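Recap from last week: sequence in, structure out.
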Amino acid sequence: MPSQDGPRRVDAANIPHWYDPSGDVLTLTNGEGVRVWDEEGTEYLDFSSQLYCTNLGHDEDSVIRAMTDQAERIPYVSSAKRSPPREQLATRLAEIAPGDLSHTFFSVSGSEANEVAVQLAREYKDASTVLTRWRSYHGGTYGAGSLTGDPATRATVERHASTTGAAKFLPPLPRAFDTDSPETLARRAGEHLEFVIRNEGPNSVGAVLVEPVAGSSGAFPAPPGYFAHVRDLCDEYDIMLIADEVITGFGRCGAWFGIETETIDPDMLTFAKGITGAYVPLAGVMVRPDLAAFVREEGFDLGQTFGGHPIACAAGIAALEAYAEGPIENVRDLEPALRDGLGELAATYDVVSDVRGRGFLWGIEFAHPETGEPFHDPRVDQDANPVSDVLKAARDRGALFGGGRPLFQIIIAPPLVATRRDIDEALAALDEAIEVVFG
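Predicted structure tokens:
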């Protein structure tokens, strides 16, 4: 329940991430299940899982106990040494990983995990270029920012630094390939990727890094057959396929990992966010046995002080046990309710131009009914954005949703423990918010 301790205080010393000086920054003080409270005691449904990471909700006692027990035993062990929680978590990850992924290099954040994966691929393949999709998000550090296809993030990162070694290809979006046919879209998008590979020079391409379902860039899944085509191209041209599971991992798409919903196996898999349910930072890269053998033979002279922190690994072990006890099944059971509820919004409001997603990761896009163009495209427009107004109106009605990249869309991503009642309540708030903004 919310704390009533003390008067409201604005801490101007802290600069929030993604800071907008004109924005209204919410201060949260308490959480329970899928709900959070602000400093004034106002309750909200957390239907963005904060940053798509609080998969287990805000009060999973087993994770908290595991962290406490490890802290009392030994709170920190150098990342250059071995620690029982690291070994136990790596073993457990190998048991649930898709394909033959067998070894884990632990990191701290998703950005750093993607950078490590790319560094490993470049060393292993002796090839520098990594292909990623436009409108992707792989992190905001210099290395991961160069991999990111979101224009706003790239512009911020590259304004004062030169980043190299990343080339872009188009995501499988209908508008990008001028078709509404899933079969045609999968074929054209796959042919486009092959063109990019050949244009870059196959011998120069070390990896293709891709989200199984796009995360904050729109929650769009690929059409059937697309990822099989990508896997075939990587095999044909001897390129590593890296699945960025920072958002889609650990149940969000209704399986342990999002790539499992596409029935192909990656060569590497990056993770973060949900590995601990966001109770403490942890990330990593899972690799195949041949890449692990390469590292054992050649060494890897890079690391991070807090990579695989013992307390974080203990939290990860407990979180995996918690996931296995029902939350992933809950996503599969309630996906139709979330999908159908969003579909009803699209049927009710002609300004909702698209609804797409998988599991508990969905996006709704807004556009002029007559033209199909966004009401506001932050990449080119400077005027007010009604999608921002929808997010604020929903917050005023007790539901927090995420803003997509670019912000002509909203991301719906509740904790995996959300109930049908929670979903109905959140969608009702979103319904009212769209009605208030668009009439």
